[in-house]
Specification:
single chain; mainly alpha; 282 residues
Length: 282
């Protein structure tokens, strides 16, 4: 590139920056109605760049006003570009101003479908009824497995949703998110497994165990189960918001119920498979 072309590029960049700053300064001194009118007149990318540094409450007020002005399509484009909206089916506008039926239509499909899917958890438990009858202690720690997976998965999902909203990550960053959450989950799961193993070892009555079953083996089985469940649920919880974004679905509606169902099903499978393998149950 020649010196003259390089200088021309610098001048062009400085000009664009000056124009952007001038537009923002004009925008700042206007009232909210004038700001909304200006957002209608400029291009979507320019509007997104203009709103990017504004407080979230002010941005939401502008989007609500645009929605009242009949600019629903522009509202969706702006909200999506700002990371505030991830679903094409999510009702536009203020939460309290949307009708009950709009919210019902948005949520009920997932809830009903996942409720039916929850029957799988019951079928898994009934399949391993003999295992529970041989060792009642295992039933005590079933809720612990489910709760640990649900809590860690929800934490990961919440942080990733926030990162998406702040545009810190995008759908194409799924592998980086997967690798990060996997490493985090290994540390968290290891600490939790040690705590649960200690809880089983020091606060369980070994005299009530069937002959040939050692308390150490039970503690190890439960510890490994919770380790595997936390690693799986955390990584899945981190990926689900990205999957929702790629599929044009709303993470606020999708992630929590889907994650809860997956944690219940996978938790029971991991728990009973691990216990049967270590304790030698059939």
């Amino acid at each position: 590139m020649s010196v003259m072309n390089y200088r021309a590029d610098i001048v062009s960049e400085n000009t664009d920056l000056a124009e952007a700053l001038a537009l923002k300064n004009i925008f700042l001194v206007q009232d909210i109605e004038s700001q909304a009118q200006q957002l209608i007149q400029i291009s979507i990318p320019d509007a997104i760049m203009l709103l990017h540094d504004f407080p979230l409450r002010h941005v939401q007020s502008l989007l609500d006003l645009l929605d009242e002005m009949g600019e629903e399509v522009r509202v969706r484009h702006l909200a999506s570009g700002l990371g505030l909206l991830c679903s094409e089916v999510e009702p536009a506008g203020h939460y309290l101003k949307n009708g009950v039926l709009n919210h019902v239509r948005e949520r009920v499909g997932w809830i009903v479908g996942l409720a039916l899917l929850g029957i799988v958890s019951g079928l898994i438990i009934s399949h391993y009824e003999d295992t529970l009858s041989q060792l009642v202690l295992l039933a005590i720690y079933m809720p612990v497995i489910a709760a640990a997976g649900g809590n860690t998965g929800s934490q990961a999902a919440t942080l990733v949703v926030r990162a998406l909203a702040m545009e810190e990550i995008r759908g194409r960053d799924w592998f980086a998110v997967l690798w990060k959450e996997f490493r985090i989950s290994l540390v968290v799961a290891s600490i939790l497994a040690v705590v649960i193993i200690g809880r089983v070892m020091f606060f369980s009555d070994s005299s009530a165990l069937p002959e040939g079953i050692l308390l150490e083996d039970i503690a190890l089985a439960i510890g490994i189960s919770i380790l595997l469940q936390v690693v799986l649920s955390t990584t899945v919880g981190g990926l689900l918001p990205l999957v929702a974004r790629i599929c044009k679905l709303d993470p606020a509606v999708l992630v929590s119920p889907v994650l809860a169902s997956l944690v219940d099903i996978t938790g029971m499978i991991i728990y009973f498979k691990t216990v049967n393998s270590i304790l030698g149950f059939t």
